[in-house]
Design a protein that fits this description.
The protein is an alpha/beta fold. Helices cover 45% and strands 18% of the residues. It has two domains: 126 residues, TIM Barrel (Alpha-Beta Barrel), CATH 3.20.20; 66 residues, DNA polymerase, domain 1.
Length: 215
């Protein structure tokens, strides 16, 4: 049986390792197939693909994980074999990226109102070249001693119902499935156990062209 990992994040979004490091670590672990599926970003695909070709020891699948919004929560949709050179996809992801940065700045303001003072400059520095996301805010809070773990930041402050949470621009799950299909990708629902009312959502997305559900 092949050893695979089809849901990996890099520093292009909220991961710990660079795209190249991920490929090297995957080879070291004996993985045969991997997919780089960063949150709302395909920026890591080219460097990861180049490293995979250089090492020539595993199959690399270009992918993306796009966050969508529903009234009772979030649904994340994975797009495998996506056309990462697509201008339409790039434009959509750019909108999400700018929205994430605006949302992050809004969260920093709300945290300050709660007596938690972290700087946008430090959050941006933690994110590096990747898209700013809530784990980067949590890391800045951890560094300043306001929390004892990343989980605590989410549980107390920046989860969806938290006092510092700020919404951002998102597409609906059906819109994202159609976006993935238009760009030659295969749409798969990510972590279905966290999806509100999963059976109804699965039926709706299947009708829109979704091909699978993450195990």
């Amino acid at each position: 049986m092949s050893k695979v990992d089809l849901h990996i994040h890099s520093t292009a979004s909220d991961g710990r390792y660079s795209p190249q490091e991920i490929v090297r670590k995957a080879v070291g672990l004996g993985l045969e197939v991997i997919a780089l599926a960063d949150h709302d970003s395909v920026d890591g695909i080219v460097p990861a693909l180049e490293e995979a070709r250089r090492l020539n020891q595993l199959q690399f699948i270009p992918a993306v994980e796009i966050s969508t919004d529903v009234p009772s929560g979030e649904v994340h949709v994975l797009g495998y074999f996506i056309d990462y050179t697509s201008k339409e996809l790039a434009a959509a992801l750019d909108r999400f990226r700018y929205s994430r940065e605006g949302r992050a700045q809004g969260m920093i303001t709300r945290l300050a109102e709660l007596g938690i003072h972290i700087s946008w400059a430090r959050v941006r520095e933690i994110a590096g070249s990747g898209t700013v996301a809530r784990p980067h805010i949590a890391q800045a809070m951890l560094e300043k001693g306001y929390i004892s773990s990343i989980k605590e930041a989410f549980d107390k402050y920046i989860a969806r119902d938290g006092p510092a949470y700020v919404e951002r621009e998102k597409m609906t799950p059906v819109e994202v499935v159609k976006l993935i299909l238009r760009n030659r990708g295969i749409a798969v629902m990510a972590h279905p156990f966290f999806v509100p009312e999963p059976e109804a959502m699965i039926a709706e997305l299947k009708a829109a062209g979704m091909a699978g559900i993450e195990a």
